[in-house]
Amino acid sequence: MKVRKTIKKPSFIISYWQCLIFVAAFLALAGLLIYGDFSSEYNSKGMRETAVYESSMNRNITNALNKENVTSQDIVKLKQQLLWHYTATGQCYEVYYNQKKILDSSRTVIFHYAPPVSEGESKLYFFELADEKYLKYFDTPEVLKYKAVVPIVYYGDGPNLFPKFNEQPVIEIGVKEAYINLETGKFIPVECFVYDTKDASLENGGISVTIPIDKNSPELKGYTHIQSNGLDNYGGSIEGCESSGVTYTGEAVSKNDYGVYYGDRSTGIDFVPFETAFKTPIMIGNCVLAFVMLAFAFIPASIVFNSRKRNYEIFEYRRKMTDAMAHDLKTPMAAILTYAENLENHTGENKQEFYVSKISEKVWQMNKMVNSMLDFSRGENAAVTVKKLPVDIGAVLADAIAENEHEITKRGLNVDYEKKSVTFNTDKDLFAQAIGNLINNAALYAKESSTITVTCEPGKIVISNVAAEAVEDASAMKQPFAKGSESRKNMGSGLGLAIAENNLVLLGYKLDVRGEDGKFVVTVTMS
What is the pTM of this model? Predict the structure, then answer.
């Protein structure tokens, strides 16, 4: 047996959490797919570029050492390539020739020197810092503040480096004056210029560094004094690099075309994980995703909540309507049944005429209730054609008061109304029905022997009465079948204000009801 579910009052919090779970699941799935796609692409690209780096470096080593006799210029040039490689990847190399270590990626400065030559000729020399003791002049706070990650460019004779795995900070150094030794490929700096790497032109910013050199020192034997402009002839200080520390065993070596063994050892490229490389974007993405989830959940939550609210309101409206109709029709039907039984049993034969009149009265009362329900239903469905013509509003009010004269007199009420002739374009039938219901409502629910005050001004009508009972929520009285508990003894259907509001809304007017100082005040605004 299928159990019918009861519609419960909806909660926006519950609707929001339900939608949030759905939105979170959807966005999380989308986020994981995007994350997986980017991570896979990054790792795939990393594997390809790792192979490219290794291949490029091995090729450079082979090209430099595939000779019968390796010169100092070959070694220093290869040293420059090792430093370029380290700057981009963080990978340290040791290179061996004839089973002897000839260079590694240790910290140094490489000076590129192009001497003046005849027109049409060019020559480029590479020199390595003669002694590590000179690095102390570049380890000062004034110089180190210029240390930064700078782009590695392709110079033709260096490696073609792709986007970096683990970039290392460098200091850009221009050499203006130095001593060079062509045989050893070493140089001793005298005057240098440290560039501001943030300035792409390399012309502004930076500081000069002067190294005190004794021109008569024996260590300058074999060195030639040179001067350059410091722009075309420069060096780069590679910071933080250490040799791999591995021991060459003579295994896994190659023999060049001249029968000389050579080889290398490296630390391996430090591949930065995707989560580390994109830590900040991932954190920002997660925060944005969380914010989007919280914000976007409001949209479906509002739709779901409003839908549930409408269903609940319809359910409640039907329930209240059924209860009200049953209650309001039950009393006259019970009376009719009683009078009919008396007639059938010939009880009080002298009262038969009275019983018939009472049955007629109760039938009339039920008919009035049914007609009110039909009027309300038509108003709600907007099944009414509005035809606006000039109407004397003051006369409509006077007629409504006259029509309720019987109820007003029966309850000992007074009506304070000064008839005025106020003409307004409106639908007379709809407007008269609305005003009649408002006057009838005041007559039914005003305190006995009190006064009903009616004022009429251009574009505004106010009807107020002393309430027979306290009105806690005046605006709720406009709801269908809303009646005070003490008013059940009256013949009201609870639809008077609801029908009045429906009519006035159709006419484009506004109905406002409020309780103040024990009075029930109704205001119709027509402007």
Answer: 0.52
